[in-house]
Amino acid sequence: MKIFHISAECYPIAKVGGLADVVGALPKYQNNLGATSSVIMPYYDNAFTQKNNFKSIYESKLDFNGHKIGYNILKTKAAVLDFEVYFVDIPNLLHKNYVYSADDTDRFLAFQIATLDWILSFKDLPDIIHCHDHHTGLIPFMCQESFKYKSLNTIPVITTIHNAQYQGWFGYDKLHLIPEFESTKTGLLDWDHCINPLAAAIKCAWRVTTVSPSYMDELKQEANGLQDLLQHESNKCIGILNGIDTAVWNPETDHYLDHKYNIKTLEAGKLANKLALCKTFNLDESKPLITFIGRLVHEKGADVFPLAIKKALEDENCSVLVLGSGHDEAEQALLQLKENNTGLYNVFIGYDEKLSHNIYAGADFLLMPSRVEPCGLNQLYALRYGTIPVVRSIGGLKDTIVDIDKNEGFGISHKEVTVAQIYKAITRSVDLYNKTTIFKSIRKHIMTIDHSWDVSAKAYINLYQSLKK
């Protein structure tokens, strides 16, 4: 089975969020099952492309906005990942040092058209086209309705929604950029009086998946305006829980860690990493270390949790370390906490991949008070490293973390994103830390929980096969 994943992101090539982690792992695990799974993505001007050498395997011109634009399909000269990645190089549009920006409509529409134009040239067409998020949301429509791509309309097209908050809206002034189709089909593009690529994908894809079962259920109730559409199309919607790449996220082999460990050396390994973190960030290593890693935005609770952290620090019963960036207000609130909490608190504004791995390894608890969390990968990384997640029970967090008050529970959860509930969750974490025997038993247990991509990759293969019958 020949599968193409089409995406704006793929780890470690270009990463903004969890989309990259999924697209950077799922193809590998599908290939382990005997498929031929590859990725098609834009060619950006970033660290990955600057340090690798590429060769052109296809060259053509793109009809776009009244112009003929040259483009190439590139591959790395040497094998870099465990699956093939094809790069769509449109120099004037895609060769940027960023992934997302204000010019995304033209950039990603050109990317999608070039991708389909290239696929048209194939002697042997792919068995499955798997699109990810709104950046590739017009591919299901174009395969189904654009005249030039009619020969592709027998290929099953899957759309996976990683985050429904972002839908790629644009106005009808750009309708002419989409390859020609019957004007009576314009309604397939429309949602709330504009062109909505994610809505078009939901309407036209053969199947629509999300990254956890609970997130799919939640989207049918609230999806930034698309909930009614998802309810209407519910017969083709399914939630498949993401996995993690256990080769990358493995404390025993993690090249980012100076102090590697496994389940047998858990206590010594966690302590060594915690001591190193606390020394670097001037934190009290004798206290439970509570951490946050992620974007400082509303959907992650970043407008609320700084106040909860401030309240917890007043108790002086824990140390807190935050890694993230986002809204200025959240960044400033977190920076201000440094003023009166020396030795108990620190923050790193920005993102550092090595530091994130070291935090998973050295932390006692990981805080995730999300308003929206389609699947969440951070809590799965935390489990793998013996760090106990403290989460809001929503989306994938609800599917993967069982509260310690429940039978066989191993995490701490809360229902609402409020200062009071986040603070209470933090105090429950401190109480658990002080119950040394139970605490050690739980973090040993969570390292054994299997959230690899094996199960999820098989679920996707089964879905594909059901569409080929």
UniProtKB/TrEMBL annotation:
Keyword Glycosyltransferase listed: yes
Cleaved signal peptide residues: none
EC number(s) stated in the UniProt entry for this protein: 2.4.1.21
Ranges where the Starch synthase catalytic domain occurs: 2-232
UniProt cross-references to SUPFAM superfamilies, sorted A to Z: UDP-Glycosyltransferase/glycogen phosphorylase
Described purpose of this protein according to its UniProt entry: Synthesizes alpha-1,4-glucan chains using ADP-glucose.
Family: Belongs to the glycosyltransferase 1 family. Bacterial/plant glycogen synthase subfamily.
Protein name: Glycogen synthase
Gene: glgA
